[in-house]
Amino acid sequence: MIGQRIAALRKARALTQDQLAVFSGIDSSNIRSYESGRSMLSVFTLVRIAEALDSAPGDFLVDLTSDMFSAPVLTVDRALLEKSYKPSGATA
């Protein structure tokens, strides 16, 4: 979803993926991965891409809902959270 929006705005700005990579300081292979949805991007990366496209990071997030993201990504995130999270007062 976000990757498709990045690609659409990049094309609207008449930029190639390589040009966006140069302007954002992000490797072009990563730009391709984000646009295709193969990789998730961090907030920091989204900010850099948004700045390179003369846009606000929130423009890529409008109308997104959690059900738009694949379950495996959410499962991995949840597993990592459960592995590292210990409630206050919990004993090991």
UniProtKB/TrEMBL annotation:
Domain of life assignment: Bacteria
Domain HTH cro/C1-type, first and last residues per copy: 6-60
Keywords for this protein: DNA-binding
InterPro entries on file: Cro/C1-type_HTH, Lambda_DNA-bd_dom_sf, TransReg_Diox_bact_type
CDD domains (UniProt xref): HTH_XRE (cd00093)
Molecular-function GO term, any one: DNA binding
Name of the protein described by the UniProt record: Helix-turn-helix transcriptional regulator
